[in-house]
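Quick illustration, no need to memorize.
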Amino acid sequence: LVPAPFAPHLLCDWLLAAVRADAPGSVVERGVCELALGLPYEHGDASGNRFISAADWLCPATCIEPARCPAIHAARTWELGDIVRAGAAHATVPYAAVELFTCRHYAFGVGAIPISELAQARQRLAALPQPAAAGPQRVLVGTVSACHGVLGELLVSSETA
């Protein structure tokens, strides 16, 4: 899958619809992602998405995010997926699951996400145990590259909760 870098969080919306279809006894809704990671750029939108970037500079549009950053002319010492997972692990309210779809350079400036990652995430979330009456389970869903990304949150509960 080749995601557009400027689109809304389509993979989060797709996962929401897929889990609704796969787990009919569950209620799956979009939440508001407020996970603060201390990055140079973090911005929430009206849909509850959180756009993030490890860069505080303007990146070249054709960047393939190599080990040596072309914008700062130095080693890229970060991996956004690792930053997100660490932040999610220390969240005040825990996440029941974290699903990150990482876009990597595939060929000739094209970034892609293996379809198998989408299918595996769908299976994992459809198999989430039903939450207790205490409230919905929070699932962090991210589409990220080494430097930039968007995060969303799904809230999964049972129909009787």
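Residues 10-22 form the longest helix (13 residues).
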